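User: Can you predict the 3D structure for this chain?
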Amino acid sequence: MPAYNSETYIEKSIESILSQTYKCFEFIIINDGSTDKTRSIIKKYKDPRINLIDNNRNLGLSRSVNKGLKVAKGMFIARHDSDDISLPTRIHDQINFLIANPSIGLCGTWAKIIGKSEHQIKHPVSRKEIQCKLFFNNTFVHSSLMFRKKLFDIHKLEYDTELKRAQDYSLLTSCSFLFDIANIPKILVMYRKNSNTKMFSSHSYQRYVNKLRKNNLKKLSIDPKKYLNIYKKICLLEKSKHRDSITESSNFLTTINHQNKILQIYPVDEFELEIIDRWSNVCSNSINRHSPELIQFFTLSPSQKYLNLLKRLIHYSFKQIRVFYKLK
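Assistant: Here is the predicted structure, written as structure tokens:
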């Protein structure tokens, strides 16, 4: 658990780990050059399971976590942030899950958002669906991650120190191509949104995520310069204000689907379904979507093959069909 100027929430965070039903673990806390009371709060806990590491200066999240990965001795490593809360059975449930599923190298869990607004995060659970959705957005709660240290050592995995944001997204995308990953469909973490340690500008975050998007496009042999802007808009569910933007979205989704069928970077069927879901979002987020012209456009575009794909989608989710046509 890295901590930088976390005096407001770190006490509850530490106590949520120390009170886990699973008791046999090493709790590595990296104090990343904090200038507030973070260190003194950590030091008041005399639990022998705590291993406090002090950085002489602020090294940032990636370097701090990488330092923790190197000194960790356990078979499994759980990530935790200094402002989040792990529910009492979190470690126990994740260890049992990984033991019962030896092919899975990394797992997350569902979570509850706490802070200014509260809601639940229920990410997909299977590797194929996760891998396809990772093309568009992160599908893990960072504080819910647990992984096998052996696999990280074998594949020499670590957090990218070149990224100041979206380090977890980058790492998880790499993991998804190396071994099985999953989410446990159970809320085991309370994830604090809009706290001091998670406040960053949208522009700053997207600048780093764009680097990942460029890599995703290159894997599909697609020129990032041509499609990066519309790719970002689709990921962020931005409203389509003009027909040209909708046409551009259609062309992009058709292109990535076509390229994936050729290269098979992502599971073909699941990727196709994810594209349909994204196309339905484009339609539902468009301005003046109820106008006759746009209704006709959505019916005819992006192509007849998308209408054929929609027929297949009936077997998976009637809800998506309803959203696509905006039926009430």
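DSSP finds 14 helices and nine strands in the chain. The CA atoms of residues 195 and 227 lie 34 Å apart.
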